[in-house]
Records
---
Amino acid sequence: MLIAERGFKRTSIDDVIEHASLSGKSHFYHYFKSKDQLGLEVLSRQFEKFAERGLAILREPMIEPIERLNLFIDSLVSLQTERGFRIGSPFGNLASEMADLHEGFRERLTLVFERWASQIQSLLWEARPYLTEQADTVRLSRFIIATLEGALMMSKVSRDAEMLRGIAADLKRFVSMHIREGVAA
């Protein structure tokens, strides 16, 4: 949470030691060779937590696929609102801060976004009986992520819940444009 709120570069090892109530730098270096290794580990754990909790709704077999996607979008809006717009997306934040500065972060972030996209692609593949023939699930999944990441960044800056809800509604409307007429998703 510390890195998500302050940013990676603005969070020092001393900040981490104090926040984690460690006994000193030797304790930190017992677990991590460097601040970069800590950052990569935090990124991996954040995604695992996101995949386990946040993306779980995308895999819920008792709910229709498009409804699951809508619930997922709603959950991101709720989470951002509950956090008071302090954090935005930890993945988007790190991508904008570190992708050009550190190859390891860029590579790990690429994997994060690819794994997220594959979850949405799987959901869209499951929804294929409802989708138009022109629906490209790969492009659509990337568009959904890009829209959500942009919306989270904009809401962090503006602290405007209505703007975030509006973008979420527009995204759902865009996805619905890829549903065949006469098919209830």
Note: The chain has a mean pLDDT of 86.
---
Amino acid sequence: MKYEIRFSGSGGQGVITASVILGTAAALHDGKNVIQSQAYGPEARGGATKADVIIADEKILYPKAQHIDYLVSLTQKAANKFIKTLKKGGIVIIDGDFVELPDSPDYKIYRLPITSNTIAKFNRTTTLNVVAVGAFAEMAGLVSMDAVKKAVIENSPAGFEEMNIASFELGRDLARAAKKG
């Protein structure tokens, strides 16, 4: 088993932190082989950013994601830029509040109202990335939920652990609802 996951969005949305949480969960708590990397241009705040995680049972021989299995996009700019990196048959999770992508026979798309639900629950958007991690974890099932919860706590600023766990659970709830509908 080897999977390539790309979190994408705008600089400042925490997509790098999302990938670190997932990588930490898979490597340190589930014992898988993991590589995490990120890239963003000089326009870091506001420009399209990406952070990749490769999760495998076997040795990972090349450190860069090449054939994305899962794409999580929080902005239209990122979705437009990175959709072409998704391999045929891949899964796309988008923030349906701000991102529109056409249906395609080349991928399965899930449109989750991430921003509106995050604002409704927390009156802020600072945990969008953790909501996205929860949605991805529930959708993909590649990493145990206990491992991801531990990684969320470990990567939370002091005093924000509870809100981040609630954000993770919100993402899981959104994914479960999307899978049913």
Note: The chain has one domain: 2-180.
---
Amino acid sequence: MKTSSTKEKILKVSTILFSELGYKGASVRKIASKVGIRESAIYNHYKNKEEIFLEVAKEIFSSPFSLKTEEIKALALRGKPFLNKFVLQYKMLTFDKNNENMFRLLMIELLQNKSLREQFMSQFHDKNIKILSEGFFIMMQNSLVYSSDPIIMAYEFLSTLFYIRLQVTLMHFDALPTNSLATQFEKHVEFFWESIRIDTI
């Protein structure tokens, strides 16, 4: 139990330090000091700083859809609520301060770290596209939306969300207000749903 809680504390502290100091600035020594353990003790849990960073990144890149497969299918059968739920969780990640700081750092590090790029593709891109395309496929099977390529539909839906998230991050970086962007997520759902749904009237 103690090992688990120490590992969790290392990740929690690392997330804060990486977001505040960047990848280079957050040394293993600083992480250990903040956790309250010896630097050598970190290596009982992680091989090096990169492994800690990739573990933190996994949390940031994880799909916002923290639902079980059955719940996702049930939502998809209702159509628009599936999109609303996905966007609500995506929006919460976007405006979470720690998450946003790490997202900004990850955008920088993606260009320099191959392992991170591979993780981004598997943990963020592939998982989200899979979840969305499966949802759209269920909607198509049940005549809720027009028949099309569910993967392309997933790309179309996700790309706008990612762009809004990037825009929020960039504006916060320059200390600009993002109030006008707060409603863009919901507006995107409305616009997208109206363009794909089958009018039953």
Note: The chain has two domains: 2-54, 62-196.
